[in-house]
Amino acid sequence: MPSITTRHFLQTAGTLLAGLVLVACSKQEPPAPAASTPAASAPAPAARVYVVGTDAAYAPFESQNEKGEIVGFDVDVVKAVAQKAGIEVKFVNTPWEGIFNSVAQGDRDLLVSAITITNERKQTLDFSEPYFDAQQLIAVKKDSKITKFADLKKLKVGVQNGTTGDEVVAKLQGKDSANIKRFESTPLALKELEAGGVEAVVADNGVVVNYVNNNADAKFKTISDTSFAAEQYGLAVKKGNAELLAKLNKGLADIKADGSYNQIYAKYFGAAPMPAAVAKAPAGAASK
Ligand code: ARG
Known about the structure:
The protein has helices spanning 6-9, 13-25, 38-41, 73-85, 99-104, 119-122, 164-173, 186-195, 205-214, 242-257, 260-269, 277-287, and strands at residues 49-54, 57-58, 62-64, 70-71, 88-93, 110-111, 125-127, 132-134, 136-141, 157-160, 180-183, 200-204, 220-223, 231-233, 236-238. It is an alpha/beta fold. A hairpin with a 3-residue loop joins strand 2 and strand 3. Helix 4 (73-85) runs antiparallel to helix 11 (260-269) and helix 9 (205-214) packs parallel to helix 12 (277-287). The radius of gyration is 21 Å and the shape is globular. Arginine is lined by residues 55, 58, 62, 96, 113-116, 160, 163-164, 186, 204.
């Protein structure tokens, strides 16, 4: 019964039975918030909508357009996956800080947020098959003397708090280094670079390249470094949610097989994906 969450099953047998009876009688009811009446606590059946959490300040993967809609590569991928999987999804802007908790607590059913699959995160979340290759990239002012990652050892560096960019800089400088300036979002870190508060920003290549290309006034250039490990993005679900994970993996396989993934890729990145080269080509090009 895909329409009822584990949480609901954990309720007492009596409530569950009552709930099932109500499910049968309330097919048209929209999901109601928990309330004192048994009717209100019945799970919404037929039209189960999966809530997708995303930190929508990460163009071109996820951002909000003028109308406040959440748009981007990740959004298109998940919509296409959902269509193949036969599920409905709804995107909810969710700050990066706390995004992993939101799925652990059941406030979100899945996350798409250019999330790098890491061993540490796998302890608390389950990830889909990878859907995108990425790598860290350094942004500096055009007149900067910085040429490689090691140059950042003793400099003020901006990162988005709790990202893989934060992790690599913490490894270089020591995690308690006062020179690491941690921001709530990557655009805020890049604004600080523009304002001169930090000398570099380290973040995902796709986002850095997009920002540099769209903010010529900021006068940034990018620096790639071979010391950065290859990263892969995955969709994340609550640990143990094998049912949803299977649907997502099936949907991902389907969109890769029928060419719709490549179409979405081309819409945002201009060419069909070539593993590994994907990430590096724009970075090198932009740093010239
Ligand atoms: N890929 C990086 C990570 O997983 C950064 C992701 C940040 N995503 C976002 N939407 N803010 O740590």
